[in-house]
């Protein structure tokens, strides 16, 4: 899910992407590795967060007016630079495009630790809900899932970080991973890097993960948004599970700012 660069390894022209998006120290998470194609009607909350029409991150519809994504996807950006493609299995075509009215980035976001990695995007016109457009449920502030719980991650990120040039997905991909225990997550990343705003998920042996371009996208358990693709070392590395923003812990921020 991560390597030295950030969100858009797969952008045709690197100059189209702001420099700061490609130089995060810890490299926020960004691809689906080891996954399969999935139709948008199976994950109708999934959107592509775009910078001047180019996919940079994923996001999740949480109401007719708001999308949730990662703060590292919005840090330093102005709403006029961004848009959202929704209701499509492709980030480049089909579905609809909507502008962004305002960005509510968590005030405690720490770009060095990638902590409090969450932003809310208020869209310029409400989503019309349907079979390919739906909001995802939110957990309560006390919800937690035991290690081993299966979760679905989806996005348009890199599908093989070792390719030169890196190959990204034009068609939406998904992969199933499992929640990793807090102890194992701390062992992998050193306990001082993992805060209670984070949790890990992966599979034994690696090879299935999110990656560059999947940042900000959903990790879903039982039709509830449990996590937001955030950061990690490598993509699918057996020693380093993916790190996700913990939506339960951050749910009060979402509800206060989105009014839901």
What are the secondary-structure elements, in order, as H or E? Answer: EEEEEEEEEEEHEEEEH
Give the low-pLDDT segments: 1-31
First-residue to last-residue Cα separation: 31 Å
- How many β-strand stretches? 15
How are the strands ordered across the major sheet?
8-11-12-15-14-13
Largest sheet properties: 6 strands, antiparallel, barrel
Mean pLDDT: 85
Helix content: under 10%
Class from helix and strand fractions: mainly beta
Total number of helices: 2
Beta percentage is: 25-35%
Shape designation:
globular
Radius of gyration: 16 Å
3D structure, described in words:
- With 260 residues, this protein is mainly beta.
- 8% of the residues lie in helices and 31% in strands.
- The strands form three sheets. Strands 8-11-12-15-14-13 form a six-stranded antiparallel β-barrel. A six-stranded antiparallel beta barrel has the order 2-3-4-7-6-5. A two-stranded antiparallel ribbon has the order 9-10.
- The longest helix is centred in the C-terminal third of the chain and has 12 residues, at 247-258.
- It is globular, with a radius of gyration of 16 Å.
- The chain starts with 35 loop residues before the first strand and ends with a helix.
- Residues 1-31 have low confidence and may be disordered.
């Amino acid at each position: 899910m991560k390597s030295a660069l950030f969100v858009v390894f797969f952008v045709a022209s690197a100059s189209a992407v702001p420099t700061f998006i490609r130089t995060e120290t810890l490299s926020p998470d960004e691809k689906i590795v080891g996954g399969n194609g999935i139709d948008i009607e199976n994950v109708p909350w999934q959107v592509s967060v775009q910078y001047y029409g180019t996919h940079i991150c994923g996001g999740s519809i949480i109401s007719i007016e708001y999308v949730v994504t990662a703060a590292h996807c919005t840090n330093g950006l102005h709403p006029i630079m961004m848009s959202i493609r929704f209701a499509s299995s492709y980030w480049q075509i089909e579905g609809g495009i909507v502008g962004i009215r305002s960005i509510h980035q968590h005030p405690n976001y720490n770009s060095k630790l990638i902590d409090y990695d969450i932003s809310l995007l208020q869209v310029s016109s409400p989503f019309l809900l349907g079979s390919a457009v739906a909001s995802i449920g939110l957990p309560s502030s006390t919800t937690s899932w035991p290690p081993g719980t299966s979760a679905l991650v989806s996005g348009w990120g890199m599908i093989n970080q070792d390719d030169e040039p890196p190959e990204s997905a034009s068609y939406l991909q998904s992969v199933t991973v499992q929640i990793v225990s807090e102890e194992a997550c701390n062992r992998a990343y050193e306990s001082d890097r993992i805060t209670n705003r984070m949790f890990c998920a992966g599979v034994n042996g690696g090879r299935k993960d999110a990656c560059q371009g999947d940042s900000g996208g959903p990790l879903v358990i039982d039709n509830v948004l449990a996590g937001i693709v955030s950061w990690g070392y490598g993509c699918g590395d057996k020693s380093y599970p993916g790190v996700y923003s913990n939506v339960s812990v951050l749910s009060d921020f979402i509800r206060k700012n989105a009014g839901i």
